[in-house]
Amino acid sequence: MQIYGLKNCDTCRKAMKALPAATLVDVRVDGVPDAVLSAAHQKFGAALLNTRSTTWRGLSEEERQGDPLTLIKTHPALMKRPLIVVDNVLFLSWNKEIEQEVQALS
Known about the structure:
Blueprint: E1 2-5, H1 10-18, E2 23-26, H2 34-44, H3 54-57, H4 61-64, H5 68-74, E3 83-86, E4 89-92, H6 96-105
Parallel strand pairs: 1-2
Antiparallel strand pairs: 1-3, 3-4
């Protein structure tokens, strides 16, 4: 089980606390593998981009119109977090429902 997120993100910390067997992959340091990022984009579409982040607000209109996967690779903090991978099943964000689903798979 891997959690793609940021080590300083409160939501990612909550997920890590609830899932002690998981490995945190800091997207700023290690990035997200292309295969995982592509699968997440196919499953979640536009929801994969965190359009409420300060990074998003700092982008120009031209940059915002770019390819979402390229934007996330260039600015990893733009990815909504956490992105959780359990046996090739993807989850995005963290709430009670997702926690229950992830716990059921692990």
